[in-house]
Design a protein that fits this description.
18 strands, about 375 residues, single chain
Length: about 375
């Protein structure tokens, strides 16, 4: 015979259930809300006063239509050190052949602008990957001294519809005086890279799973409307050479390539996720894209070689109208120069992504869950003995 559930059992059972739920929550993270390659999900708000804290490294969110609450995403950034350099990079893949645009801005909680950038795919230049990055490392004292910054991402295309997946990277570096570092050597290696014996090697899907190809010659293919990613790391004192070759496309798909204006492109993303170089080419004839980044030095840093670290090579294919084709390519990438740690501050070669749940809080949740579960189970046993 089943004993009826009496009121005295409710509290111990509730404690056991609550503990179990906390354990599951602490162990499972974001569950369905997490895309492993893009990092943890962060849910930005339309209001800066309610903006969630953005953790260092990679994360993702989505962005709705222009001129709606969903078309604005705000995040709070906490400086971990005085006058720390802060950069937020926002990348997004849009529908092939469509027009769209994004703007990112860094500002203080009082609304003082510290940096802004935008990118768009317009009728005269339809891109597949939009990339914008805002950085706060200028001599603006209000920006430098603000312990907290607000990053805002807005959709700025009149014809926008549907949702965009935002690929976010927050990059922080110590504040330094560039004049305290020595001058870098002149970049003299202008010789083009030679393609050696190629090895078939598929790429990744984004920065975190990009495939290392330093010093190798590889070949692969990429579908129209898609991207594939590779990476090479450089240290202070080194520059970077990249060469992508698109050979003759197979005769069987040439009519599709010509009819739909299919083009190949290469985008180079820096350690902080910002776009360093971008170029696209017509694929109706053999084409190549060479990239030569100058030596990385904090004193004479340029927009396209600011920091040592891992650079991501994004190779893709786009078209003005749909075309079901795959395009072959070959790639060679290699650092040049001599590494010299004296040319810049100590920064990691790989960007580390923080967990979506702060570690102390995670352990607190697990401990609380265990205690509640044990306490609830003990009370159930006592009720059975004395019931």
């Amino acid at each position: 015979m089943t004993r009826p559930l009496v009121p005295g059992w409710r509290r111990p059972l509730a404690a056991a259930v609550a503990g179990a739920l906390l354990l599951l929550g602490g162990c499972s993270g974001d569950g369905d809300d997490e895309k492993e390659v893009l990092g943890p999900r962060v849910k930005g708000t339309s209001s800066s006063s309610e903006a969630p804290v953005l953790q260092s490294g990679d994360s993702w969110d989505n962005l709705g239509a222009t001129n709606t609450d969903d078309g604005v995403r705000s995040y709070s950034i906490e400086r971990e050190a005085d006058k720390e350099s802060v950069q937020i990079a926002v990348n997004t893949l849009i529908a092939n052949g469509s027009e769209d645009g994004i703007t990112v801005e860094l500002k203080t909680p009082t609304g003082h602008s510290c940096g802004t950038d935008s990118d768009e795919s317009a009728s005269y230049s339809k891109a597949l990957l939009l990339s914008a990055a805002a950085v706060s490392d200028t001599d603006d004292e209000e920006c430098l001294n603000s312990k907290r910054l607000i990053a805002t991402v807005k959709r700025n295309s009149k014809n926008s519809s549907g949702w965009l997946d935002l690929r976010l990277r927050l990059f922080k570096a110590p504040h330094v005086d560039p004049e305290s570092f020595p001058d870098p050597p002149e970049s003299t290696d202008d010789e083009p890279l030679a393609f050696g014996a190629t090895v078939a090697k598929a790429g990744g899907t984004w920065m975190s799973d990009a495939v290392d190809v330093s010093g190798q010659t590889i070949n692969s293919e990429v579908a129209n409307g898609a991207i594939t990613t590779y990476k090479t790391a450089i240290k202070w004192g080194e520059g970077l050479k990249v060469h992508v070759n698109f050979p003759d496309v197979p005769p069987s798909i040439m009519p599709e390539v010509e009819k739909n204006k299919v083009r190949g492109f290469v985008v180079l993303l820096g350690p902080g996720g910002s776009q360093q170089e971008s170029e696209d080419v017509d694929l109706t004839s053999p084409s190549s894209i060479p990239i030569n980044l100058p030596i990385a030095s904090i004193k004479k840093r340029s927009d396209n070689a600011a920091y040592q670290g891992t650079y991501t090579i994004v190779i893709g294919v786009r078209s003005e109208t749909p075309a079901d084709v795959k395009i072959p390519f070959s790639l060679v990438s290699k650092p040049y120069g001599e590494a010299n740690g004296a040319l810049g501050p100590e920064t990691p070669l790989e960007v580390v992504t923080s967990t979506s749940t702060p570690q102390p809080l995670l352990w607190g949740l697990l401990a609380t869950g265990i205690l509640l579960t044990l306490a609830g189970a003990a009370q159930v046993v006592l009720h059975r003995r004395h019931g």
